[in-house]
């Protein structure tokens, strides 16, 4: 040992530059990870915050209103330009406008600018000038905004009444009618009420004056939401943000996956992963028990073990090819010929679907579960097995009462790692059953309730599709960020659970106590 | 219990019968599952066979069309992958797998070029210098990084990183130039610090406190880049590249793929390399340090040679992952089947081609079988690479046991 003073003097010179480069590569990796996660978090969450709407007056006197998206330097290095989301795609043909910063004369944020979210054409931005009810009453000026809010609330309750009427009164009657019941009269009165409700919802419309002096008439049934972001308090904005996040999680996609929510994709991902884990757990555990407890531990078993380990490294797309060739075309095609030949040539099981996707992913994650379970089994000391056998237990009893309970955390770890891998895997799904848009989730009230042959939506594929195949990528980007954030969060939570379980497992086996 | 001998023997026989039945079931199930897994390779091989030995319903593709350059064609590119327009027509089939294999290997090479130095540096640092507390936190963090789905990384690379790099090419270059001197400067400055500050920021925690320093370097690179561009490249790096070097600059290119896939591959290389380095028996490193070597010299002369098979297998596993990664290449590469040495041009990999084209290729057709051949290539390549890595690792473990036992 050198004296302390000598070691301090030696360190910088002696450790040399390599130590600093090595430390730098740790820092660089952490920085990259941090940058990726914070990019996703910031971009994914800020979209739901109601952005202020700017009224921009240009040097040439033209006006435009929109949310400022970003500002970039011009290519020649002369000044900068800004991108505004101006909406009103039905008027301008686009919903974006680039403006050179030097051409802007004045920017203000008047509180009376209204942002409308519509069923078609995306949002509309302008000043509310008039509201016309179905009976022809016209409200103009100051009173229009409260009248609009009241009328929209009324419309929402009418819509709820209509849905309730349809689901609780009409649909059961229709089913009874199909079964030969005599409900014609009740059905007729219910239909009349439905028509009355429908009529009460139609006819109203509002008029917006856009910033450049245009006029936009919007029927009220097209309006999803209205807000005046510049007039909102921070608390109102927080409420609106929460509502936006909730709608994103609970609604279906609109406008070719560029707006709306991702509920069907969440549902599809979770359902597919659940089916996969139901398939993979018993088979993986069975194979691991066979390899570790039953098979003769010779050269062949060792080779098989290495092969299984290596299958975890085979690219996922290869599993997708196998799933398509064997499950979809092979087994699915045969099933169609035997049981669904009435529907041919349109395939039932002979095309990608929920069942084949879960099977393919189960195969893909099988090595993960086998390896994790085997590690857990190998860690159990042989004395435990020998003790059980010496007390007269048969091998089955030894396995099921002593070995498997001790290996449970290892199995759980394996299954969770498998789930985390499957939730993020997209490439094989593109071959065996994921769909761009499947607004119907594969579970519903019709027999057999769970439709294994249906295509489904998936969070990962939704990201790919919205980001690369959508018409207006610019408009889809915020939702893609939010979807990516959601997917990463799901996977992080699953992985943290696995890490926690593994930690739990190692401390428990340190003490070697049963149960 | 002498009086209950007869019911006991019945029960015992029942138990033994149940035991035997369970053993048979487990054996059958286990062998079945493993056979199903191994069936993947068999299925691909069987489906590919008709390509080479036609059976009447399908025509064969000559080996020449797949691997050799086209003859007597005016086309300057002599290897072309273009099955959708040329199969089933009178034209010569342009189904060369060479550009796809090229794209796959090029993407993997760039990814490894970025991932391997980062991963090995990080592994060396965490095995030798890092404080145990930070190390026990860093490992799960990098495991989480490994679990990030490819589709998210590919999206960020293709739609955020690629346009940014296209606009800020000079920034990236400046960052590359500044990175190594900047880190060395950090080391030099650190050694000039008063001892109390050095104790507050020890080398063991450098992985954390260098992050703000790197941010500082990034902003310095951003500030310096216009100056660098004006001084060395006549004001416009991209123009300079295109005119002076004749390099096309595509938005989504091999470098972007390399950066994204390097990010994705780095954690798995790190984990294996770290295992190999920290698995080297302590007696070796302690002996070297007792003879007066610094920790870095110990690493370079003693630990690294001892662990080199493990490092090799880590790199191999990384290569296997990089070759098979689909979504990142699909989203960040532009998918143009080019064969150039230009790292700023697009590429198209085998895996991405399968993902794009297989849903449209009807079952049993020539196109379908060609894509299955591509899948078989991927399967064989990754399987061989992984087996090699596994064998090397097994041998290494035996060596450590011997070395550790001798100490």
From TrEMBL, chain A:
<feature type="transmembrane region" description="Helical">
    <location>
        <begin position="479"/>
        <end position="501"/>
    </location>
</feature>
<dbReference type="InterPro" id="IPR005672">
    <property type="entry name" value="Phosphate_PstA"/>
</dbReference>
<protein>
    <recommendedName>
        <fullName>Phosphate transport system permease protein PstA</fullName>
    </recommendedName>
</protein>
<dbReference type="Pfam" id="PF00528">
    <property type="entry name" value="BPD_transp_1"/>
</dbReference>
<dbReference type="InterPro" id="IPR035906">
    <property type="entry name" value="MetI-like_sf"/>
</dbReference>
<feature type="transmembrane region" description="Helical">
    <location>
        <begin position="262"/>
        <end position="291"/>
    </location>
</feature>
<dbReference type="InterPro" id="IPR000515">
    <property type="entry name" value="MetI-like"/>
</dbReference>
<keyword id="KW-1133">Transmembrane helix</keyword>
<feature type="domain" description="ABC transmembrane type-1">
    <location>
        <begin position="266"/>
        <end position="498"/>
    </location>
</feature>
<feature type="transmembrane region" description="Helical">
    <location>
        <begin position="352"/>
        <end position="372"/>
    </location>
</feature>
<keyword id="KW-0472">Membrane</keyword>
<feature type="transmembrane region" description="Helical">
    <location>
        <begin position="311"/>
        <end position="332"/>
    </location>
</feature>
<comment type="similarity">
    <text>Belongs to the binding-protein-dependent transport system permease family. CysTW subfamily.</text>
</comment>
<keyword id="KW-0812">Transmembrane</keyword>
<keyword id="KW-1003">Cell membrane</keyword>
<feature type="transmembrane region" description="Helical">
    <location>
        <begin position="402"/>
        <end position="423"/>
    </location>
</feature>
<keyword id="KW-0813">Transport</keyword>
From TrEMBL, chain B:
<keyword id="KW-0472">Membrane</keyword>
<feature type="transmembrane region" description="Helical">
    <location>
        <begin position="254"/>
        <end position="273"/>
    </location>
</feature>
<feature type="transmembrane region" description="Helical">
    <location>
        <begin position="302"/>
        <end position="323"/>
    </location>
</feature>
<keyword id="KW-1133">Transmembrane helix</keyword>
<feature type="transmembrane region" description="Helical">
    <location>
        <begin position="21"/>
        <end position="46"/>
    </location>
</feature>
<feature type="transmembrane region" description="Helical">
    <location>
        <begin position="170"/>
        <end position="191"/>
    </location>
</feature>
<keyword id="KW-0813">Transport</keyword>
<feature type="transmembrane region" description="Helical">
    <location>
        <begin position="370"/>
        <end position="392"/>
    </location>
</feature>
<feature type="transmembrane region" description="Helical">
    <location>
        <begin position="107"/>
        <end position="130"/>
    </location>
</feature>
<keyword id="KW-0812">Transmembrane</keyword>
<protein>
    <submittedName>
        <fullName>ABC transporter permease subunit</fullName>
    </submittedName>
</protein>
<comment type="similarity">
    <text>Belongs to the binding-protein-dependent transport system permease family.</text>
</comment>
<dbReference type="InterPro" id="IPR035906">
    <property type="entry name" value="MetI-like_sf"/>
</dbReference>
<feature type="domain" description="ABC transmembrane type-1">
    <location>
        <begin position="101"/>
        <end position="389"/>
    </location>
</feature>
<dbReference type="InterPro" id="IPR000515">
    <property type="entry name" value="MetI-like"/>
</dbReference>
<feature type="transmembrane region" description="Helical">
    <location>
        <begin position="203"/>
        <end position="224"/>
    </location>
</feature>
<dbReference type="Pfam" id="PF00528">
    <property type="entry name" value="BPD_transp_1"/>
</dbReference>
<feature type="transmembrane region" description="Helical">
    <location>
        <begin position="142"/>
        <end position="164"/>
    </location>
</feature>
